[in-house]
């Protein structure tokens, strides 16, 4: 059976950093994000006796090594939950991202969310999005939140009943505009998760984050733009501080990143514009502002010498009709 799904990537708000279990991908703490659109991944899967082995192709390239293992973990999780006989056959997966990967724009989140959604359908699971979020999680924890979409929280826990993503209701998507400043510096987020707990800042971050999560939830429920994006800006600094003080002293911000951060602060402090920066594990910057100021903000970000796009809030992962199959 063949199935196709799409999912939007995430921008972290209270960001996820570090896993207590790297096989089940159980994070140390909860995390909250929003999905971005129209950026998306589209993925088609098919289990068939005509295939010799599991094969995965992303943006025209056949996966191997670690990238292959991560997709295989998602396939195996879907197989383990399925009673359908045909899931013993090899699977073919093809996927396309509408935006660059490994530059801090969350390609692993939409990638594994679209894979999990399509696999759940092809394996006839009849599962809710919350349940599918646990399948996506074994590829990438951020992918759990991309399954449930919009503003979502991945709850940590030691099992799939607890460690799953749930939506947080908010109307903030109505006025929010996200100017993306693309800084194409390649990285693998797994490297940062691996050494998260080895930074002396990690315990402090872990202790601090519970209050941040409570304030973020409250800000989202009450549609408080400044509260939500000030917290996201602050957490970007906390995440970078923790990563930079790990064993490899990894600095993922680039000169263009800092130029955007300074520009955002100037617009806010000197021109009174509601605008906040946010970075995930990478050099690219999300600049969160409102519809009224988006053109002015985009122009200022572009003046930093980077290419820009304007994104909105995206919904949950969803199945697509057969005319959207990639093969
Ligand atoms: N469409 C896809 N399907 C399956 N796997 C994907 C897809 N797109 C990206 N990936 C995997 O996700 C990895 C990139 O994600 P990584 O965990 O480094 O960071 P991220 O923070 O989610 O991504 P980004 O840097 O794009 O923000 C790639 O190396 C690849 O293995
Ligand atoms: C802070 C982030 O950038 C962390 C993203 O981590 P990944 O989802 O890429 O990690 P893996 O589970 O190793 O795939 C955004 C977030 O999810 O908060």
UniProtKB/TrEMBL annotation:
EC number, UniProt record: 4.1.1.33
Signal peptide (UniProt feature, chain positions): none
A molecular function GO annotation: diphosphomevalonate decarboxylase activity
Domain named Mvd1 C-terminal: residues: 196-304
Pfam family, one: MVD-like_N
Tree of life domain: Archaea
Location of the Diphosphomevalonate decarboxylase-like N-terminal domain: 7-164
Gene Ontology terms: cellular component: cytosol
Keywords: ATP-binding, Lipid biosynthesis, Lipid metabolism, Lyase, Nucleotide-binding
The keyword Membrane appears for this protein: no
Group of enzyme by EC: lyase
UniProt keyword Hydrolase present: no
GO biological process, any: isopentenyl diphosphate biosynthetic process, mevalonate pathway
UniProt xrefs under NCBIfam families: IPP_alt_MvaD (NF040704), mevDPdecarb (TIGR01240)
Protein family according to the UniProt entry: Belongs to the diphosphomevalonate decarboxylase family.
Protein name: Diphosphomevalonate decarboxylase
Organism per entry: Natronorubrum daqingense
